[in-house]
């Protein structure tokens, strides 16, 4: 039995004028660390709200821990831990007061579930008397995760949990998720950060409410269907503009130090063709090479392919 299952979920807002979730289907296996990867506005939060039974889909069906999100919502709420994207704990309560409140809601206690939250709780307990509103981003993150785990959920739903925290806190958080997975908890996490996709066992790429691909990170990269070129010059902005006006180029986009180039018709002299064209328009110190694609490159490719349909 899958821990999470969505079948043809559709959700609109503004009387049907805005499509937030467009015929989405995917499954999360029991004990899996699964990532929902996409930018802001892709539909990730709507999916999480449907799975946590606080939002009804217009069409389709979904289940969590084997229970239907509409008919058996009470059973789901006792078995799911949810961490929303925006910090939603009580700012005026201390760390300990927040934890004790959520423990009381689920008729349990910190002591009863200490074995599960130990590694996280031990990091924040020295500040038990500090109000939640006065905590750093990383500490708020750990407190919210502790509160989501206080009742030993079967499934943990984390909606963009690392947004707005520093790189060190992001790494610590993913290390905590790996520890939780080893304790048998199923984890569904959403993120706009493509580099975090590699930390999941499987991922679903989502854009404009549509699922573009569901696979392991490795297989998504392997499926990239064309040769990818990286290019840079003394003036990358001019180089990018020139390539976008070149008929032989199918796609050109910025990505860090090097821009990415995809040509329409691949042949052995593509690098020479691109370099000659760039230098013809006055670009200096042009460097072009073939590179291995990343998950972000695959996401852009699939998004463009979907947009052209």
From TrEMBL:
It comes from Albibacterium bauzanense. It comes from the Bacteria. Belongs to the ABC transporter superfamily. The keyword Transport applies. One of its GO terms (molecular function) is ATP binding. Residues 4-233 form the ABC transporter domain. This is ABC-type multidrug transport system ATPase subunit. Pfam families: ABC_tran (PF00005). The keyword Transport applies.
